[in-house]
Amino acid sequence: MRRRLLQSLVPMVIVLAVVAAVPLANYIATSASRTLFLSRSNDADWFATMAESPLQSGDIAGLRELAVRYHELYNTPVFVVDVDRRVIATSRSGVVVTEPDLDNALDSTLAGRLPAEPPALWPWRSGEMVVARPVVNNGRVLGAAVLRVPTERSREQVQRGLLLLLGGLLISIGAVVIGIVRPVTRWVLRPLNDLDNATHQVTRGALDTRVSTDGRAPELRRLGDSFNSMALSLHQARQREREFVADASHQLRTPLTSARIHIEGLSRLSPTARFALSDIDRLGRIVQRLSRLAGSDRPGDADGNEPPLDLAQAVKERLVGWKAVYAADDLELIIGEMVPGGVASELEVDDILDVLLDNAAKYGAPPVEVSVLRDGTEVVLSVRDHGLGLGSRDLKKVGERFWRSAHHREMPGTGLGLAIVRSEAARVGGRVVARPPIGGGLVIEVRVPLIEDYDL
Fold this sequence. Notes:
Elements: H1 2-57, H2 61-74, E1 78-82, E2 87-90, H3 100-110, E3 129-137, E4 140-149, H4 152-203, H5 218-267, H6 272-294, E5 309-310, H7 311-328, E6 333-338, E7 342-343, H8 349-363, E8 368-375, E9 378-385, H9 392-397, H10 417-427, E10 431-435, E11 442-449
Parallel strand pairs: 6-8
Antiparallel strand pairs: 1-2, 1-4, 3-4, 5-7, 8-9, 9-11, 10-11
Helix pairs in contact: 1-2, 1-4, 4-5, 5-6, 7-8, 8-10
């Protein structure tokens, strides 16, 4: 926007500067021509006075000598003609009075009319200036004294003046652009810049960002009001989302606690109840993670004294149950390479693997392959399916809360599974990577830091 505004204002400034410079350039050339003409007119008047007596007496030797000396001194040819345009005295030979410029000058001078003002001395033109004065005696024209004035030096002066004018013009244009056009452009675009900065703040999660609409143009004021309304709606939606998750998790804690107490009592009578007790504990952890995901609770402090967790071993234990689930649905689950590697003990491997395998079964296609590898300072839990995969734009959005691919929106789900996985990985300094593998499908990698001093 700023570039477009400058592209429209700068040419306007240049045009105005050129319009103002043209009369100045014409003044420089015309002034130099007039100055040269007036200075040589005085000399022509003097020669006309000196030629009056020789034209009457016919003794022109002295007049010829004066013309030659003047020519040598000022490098300006001089000649005198009578009323019949015959050359009586000259400072150089070969004068042709029938040349157009001389003929016109003699017509006016011998007719007793005032000479015309010479044209402007532009540097790209050439030629001499003709200055003629009548030789008069008692009101009768006897002849004319003519000077052919060189103009090279005056044209050089005009050229220097035009160059100075051009330099001043460029400096003026630069000064106007820097001192006026750019500040005006910034002032005009300031509301849009404020709106752009506010939009970036909203995209970074600062939904309480607002723009000022005071003193703005009606169009910008309406745009600012629309932006503020949009940001308020997003802020309220985010608040309702967090309040819903926080309220739901809070409401679930009480029945889960009560259920755990009852199941603890039953666990003394039935060993099967112990598995239910484990699931209750897992539900409790899920509720805590939902609270953290909504931002309503602070993440619990991990016990730094707990030993690291062997990610490969934890995955293999969890896969025992998932193999039965996949087999019941006639899906193939392949257990790939399992390289031991120590990770933080607070990493919820069961929940992460449950989300990845459930997504692969629902949205992908068999076979589904699970592996644990080392990659430098990271341990990588990888789950690959052979489905349609995701496009490049969708791959960048994997892990965003409530986001779902356009191909899967008709299928059941909340769009929170991978967001929880990403949150769990980030809690131990890890990350989630989604990429298309060779041969098609989708690979979800959970990369967490390797604990180097873990004793395998």
